[in-house]
Amino acid sequence: MADKELDRRLDELFGELTSPPAPAADDPPLQLDGLFSAESSLPPTLAVPPVKAARQNIEPPQLAPPAGEHRPTEPDLIDQLSRWGIDPLLETLAGDKQELAAAALFHLLQQSEAANRHVLALAKSGGRAALLRGGEIYISHLLGQKFVFVPPGPFKMGSNPADDELSGAAEQPRHTVNLPGFWMARYLLTTAHFQSFLAQSGYRPAGQLERDNTPVTNVTWFDALACCRWLADRSGLPVTLPSEAEWEKAARGADGRRYPWGNQPPTPQLCNFSQITPVGQYSPQGDSPFGCADMAGNVGEWTRSQFRPYPYRPHAGREDEQGQQPRVIRGLPFNNPRSMTRCAYRHRLEPQIHLPTLGFRLVVSAQ
To answer: What is the model's pTM?
Structure first.
């Protein structure tokens, strides 16, 4: 199928996907298992294999293999599909129809890559509300985390001591940064999701973890990045940690507010100052303009950015993922002074550090 025709059909699909009601603000974030589930609960049209591995291992199927050529047995095919996490559609087709299953697999790979390209194009240029909502649903179900769209455009980054008496030197000067659109996780990644990543990937983190609906903590920057890379490899999407500019824009919007909810000082109704709480407990009243939860209080968040002086310049090497340079922490945790919960506040830590008050959230960013 030609790319233009496939894109047209994806437009129709994304439009249809807007018909279900939007999840309520207090829906359990664990409701979406996505790629964190060993047995994906995704509908067949949204079940996407690890695209990088698939590109290396699959060629267009020969529906009538030459005589003497190896034909995959049913156990071979089911084992391959299981490794890729594609159960509902293709295992049904396996049985005595291996060629049909192989053809369906190849077609699904092509569609998943086209869908991913389409979603990233939406992020860069924006689009109709129905398409953006459809992209939000697609990414949320695929990655098992609720995502919100942050549109392209400029915002004011940093703070100015003339209008913010709490402004620190590291936040100055206040300046304009223009970013393409991106998809930000509504919630911090939970310990339950991170434990699923560990169980499926075999990765071993530095700290000790529980399994519940609170933000995952005790993870180093390298641990957080490993989880992102695993999701990127399985989904074919550029899943990573947010840059500090993406984090700040998602937290404060384009109006330069001090806190995610506005300029009102923090209160116990807007964010957490006593202990770590389950994600989303202060929604919607404490949410950011784009609907991100817990961007003040609760736990601090790793970003992918190296800590450097302002002004921030995209594509200036701050997001280089190599090396041991200190990384920026945003959204300071509950046990810090309330002045540090401002959207502009930035801190730094060595990437090998892990703390019981430090976690992360996901972003799908084409930068």
So the answer is: 0.77
